[in-house]
Specification:
Urease, subunit C, domain 1; 2 domains; 9-stranded mixed β-sheet; 5-stranded parallel β-sheet; 17 strands; 32% helix; binds N-(aminocarbonyl)-beta-alanine; binds zinc ion
Length: 456
């Protein structure tokens, strides 16, 4: 199957050119000013006035995540389909083994769960405890399975979080094997003490979620993770950075030449903690961790994105239905943490970043696609529109207008934290591995199947 995209403007991380693009058998074959092909079955798309972006890469999603409130409400099929509607064509999810389970065994189980994905995918693998075999298990994941990143949690101490000594040893093992640690930075002990204190005092509503997870609990954990990573000489990627104080430590480490990358998410750029004022039904959708912060944090994160202190934007997509959220009706500690967003990342960043004149078109491509591809070892297979790359291309109409709503989104979730947000610009075509999946908000995909990516 071949597709010829004519007259579009190709936007990559470092240049913007007017060119035609020829796709054959899932690969970009040619990029040139005026391509003409005479082939049977060729699909020709006129992209005059449109941008061609490399397909989005969301480096932080949780499909079908097991929690005490049940699985997160998107599985790999529904979540990847929603991702494609929004122009994201590659997902990096997580492998969270049970205690005692070998990393590679958990990885193989997770691969089976992800088999329904329509987009290509990979995983960050989480050592959830220290044991002497971890260095060898990490090496197997890296050398034989194409897993280059290992996720650790400093919160959630009662389940998957690591104590400091375990964290240091995991970082050393990952550094020795040549990998990268990705980390959820929140001081678990401090948060647990605050959560329990509030509950004992009868403070049980979502209002106390952000108060029990203050920005200092994130910033102190960021500082600790950076110090441990420096000691181990381990490359570090800090997920879902939400606070101004955290950025201070990240900036200092980067200035010192340490390999520290940072990710933020649309919710930390565009929403604030006023969302925790109201009744349970209004506020529970916003219970996610770290919590929403202040407008000054939003601003600091936009600045950090602009000046490359933050290199990537993920979504932390982890939706739950309201029925699931209601498990915590009388105890905010029991509200399933997380919200959906995989479908909205590109449109929100385009609308409020590019059209809002905060970031350039090239910066948009860097933070949504090229940087995640480079950081996580899938560049230049992905993250760029170039000859030989996978044909994951979004043809973007910069002039469309719409409003985000639970009524028209494709995520499997009956609330939407971006409900009512106005959008300017959206995908006209989404092409994944050389096949058209979405055209003008309609699903047109046939025989689309994602693959597990071996990263290097
Ligand atoms: O609230 C969130 N973020 N849920 C997903 C798990 C995590 O911490 O990333
Ligand atoms: Zn997290
Ligand atoms: Zn997460």
């Amino acid at each position: 199957m071949a597709i010829l995209i004519k007259n579009g403007t190709v936007v990559n991380a470092d240049e913007t050119v007017k060119a035609d693009v020829l796709i054959e058998n899932g690969i970009i074959r040619q990029i040139a000013p005026d391509i003409s092909v005479d082939a049977a079955g060729l699909t020709v798309i006129d992209a005059y006035g449109k941008y061609l972006f490399p397909g989005g890469i969301d480096p932080h999603v949780h499909m079908h995540l097991p929690t005490p409130a049940g699985y997160s409400s998107d599985d790999f099929y529904s979540g990847s389909r929603a991702a494609l509607f929004g122009g994201t064509t590659t997902l990096i999810d997580f492998v969270t083994p049970h205690k005692g389970e070998k990393l590679v065994d958990a990885l193989n189980k997770r691969k089976a769960e992800a088999a329904g994905s329509l987009t290509d995918y990979s995983f960050h693998v989480s050592p959830v405890e220290w044991r002497d075999s971890i260095p060898e298990e990490v090496k197997v994941c890296l050398d034989e399975e194409g897993i280059t990143s290992f996720k650790v949690y400093m919160a959630y101490k009662d389940s998957i979080g690591l104590e400091d000594e375990a964290l240091k040893k995991v970082m050393q093992a990952v550094a020795d094997a040549g990998g990268m640690v990705t980390v959820h930075c929140e001081d678990g002990d401090r948060i647990d003490a605050l959560r329990n204190r509030f509950f004992k005092e009868g403070k049980t509503t979502p209002h106390y979620h952000p108060l029990s997870r203050p920005p200092e609990a994130e910033a102190d954990a960021v500082k600790k993770a950076i110090d441990f990573a420096a000691e181990a000489r381990c490359p570090l990627y800090i997920v879902h950075v939400s606070s101004r104080q955290s950025l201070h430590h990240i900036h200092t480490a980067q200035q010192n030449g340490q390999k520290v990358y940072a990710e933020t998410c649309p919710q930390y750029l565009l929403l604030d903690d006023s969302k925790y004022e109201g009744d349970f039904e209004q506020t529970a959708p916003f219970v996610l961790s770290p919590p929403l912060r202040k407008t000054m944090d939003n601003k600091a994160l936009w600045d950090a994105l602009e000046n490359n202190m933050v290199q990537a934007v993920g979504t932390d997509h982890c939706p739950f239905t309201m029925a699931q959220k209601r498990e915590g009706m009388n105890d905010f500690r029991k509200i399933a943490n997380g919200a959906g967003g995989v479908e909205h990342r590109m449109e929100l960043l385009y609308t409020y970043g590019v059209a809002g004149q905060k970031i350039s078109l090239n910066r948009f491509v860097q933070i949504t696609s090229a940087n995640p591809a480079k950081i996580f070892g899938i560049y230049p297979q992905k993250g760029i529109i170039a000859q030989g790359a996978d044909a994951d291309i979004v043809i973007w109409n910069p002039d469309t207008e719409k409003t985000i709503s639970t009524q028209n989104h494709h995520m499997h979730c009956d609330s939407d934290i971006f409900e009512g947000f106005k959008i300017t610009g959206s995908p006209e075509y989404v092409i994944v591995n050389g096949k058209i999946a979405v055209h003008n908000e309609k699903w047109v995909g046939k025989n689309i199947k994602g693959r597990f990516l071996f990263r290097k």
